[in-house]
Amino acid sequence: MIKPHKTHRQQKQEQIKERLGEVGVCRIRRTEENDGISETLGCGFLVRNFAIVPGFPYPRCLISSDKIFPVECNIDKYYLDFKKVDPNALKTIKLKDITKADKVSRNYGLVVIQIDPSEKCKKGDSLFDRLFDVTNEELTPKENDLRCLYVDDAGDSQFSVKSLKLGEPLQSQYVLAEENESPYKSFTEVTRRGDRKPYGAAIVKNDGGGLIIAGALTFSDDDTKTVQPVFFPLPAQGSVSQWNNPSEEGQPLRHTPLVAVATLEQEAVDGLVKSGKIPKDNLPYLAWDIGNEGSWKNFGRCLNLSEGELKCFGSDHGGEYERWYCMLKAWRERDGAYVTLANTLKKHNRTDLFEQYCLEGSDPPTKGPRQPPTDLNLKKLRISEEDHRDISRRVASKRRRLGRALGLGDENLEAIMEDNANDTNEQSFKILQKWMQSNGAKATYDVLAQALYDRTVMLDDVVEDYCVI
């Protein structure tokens, strides 16, 4: 049987995956612009779907130590060096090309930096083939296959990625070990040989299908600088882990964190959750996306709306979608904070919507309607009176949604509803009429087609029947 041909890109991806332990750990340097001197600070590694806040994984992150990225650091001066599949070549990335200063989160002695493709480092770049998967299971004292991958520096043009075994704790103290050497208990002991840079080392284990990340290496903040690993997944929000008794078999082992896990409110300051209020033009799409998520009343209660406020959205609000929209609109008027929405989405297990709407740097799916097929030859004429009447009847069931997609404000829509109560077709006619009057010669079939294709409206058949030449 003939095997399918693999492209050069596919072959390279396979090679990176096979050697991820070597090419997935990076050397982190800081360069001073005035003298051009480069200093190797430590190491780090890239992961996918890492939960900075438990329950909300971010697609791509760089994980390292807060000793490498102190609070006042300038990320514009930082560089990441990765070994290529060719062992004699390096891949260098300017950190500022894949992240921003407000995307840095700190906890447990670690720094987690959200990274994204950019114009200078596009989505197809091999950098994004170097992402490790992160374990989702607890560690136990019986595990003895954990290794720390760290950088041993060798100058500007080269470095090595080496491995130390992470040993079981002795008297509540983890150790690092290598053959023919006494166990290392501290940063000082680890760095006696070569030019080792262990801060930010990746703790990995082999799950049978390759290496996955089990944690990251730090050292205590006191003078002893003892070995202090951080295991993933991180503890649940608000909890503080303590050492467990090593003699108790089966108990998960975690170090006592230096600080408690941040709440979402704290994370908003650190740049995970957007600050301020959600824009009004996000609401129609958020209502559409979350409208199949159980009861809008329960969701409204989680947003701290009162029972009296929820009673206002009864049977006269045009169906379930409209009740979702009106509930979200009322919430925005009295609160509307991203952090409130983020917490509520977490309670309803909607990580996807958290990432799309609340995550700093995200691009909510609201920037425009679905586009009509390019092979449609749309009319660019002003809508005729006859078509105005016919179209208004065809769109009556989604008249409010279409009005919003056409840019009419809620005040205009509600005034039309009240003036033409109990007459659905007339309401629909007046909505189109208001739009046509407001836009004059620009109220054309092709513009209407864009709104009809909006994902909250989706009346494609009306486009085909009236807007196509």
UniProtKB/TrEMBL annotation:
Ranges where the Death domain occurs: 295-355, 384-452
Gene Ontology terms: biological process: signal transduction
SUPFAM superfamilies: DEATH domain
Name listed for the protein in its UniProt record: Death domain-containing protein
Organism: Stylophora pistillata (Smooth cauliflower coral)
Matching InterPro entries: DEATH-like_dom_sf (IPR011029), Death_dom (IPR000488), FADD (IPR016729)
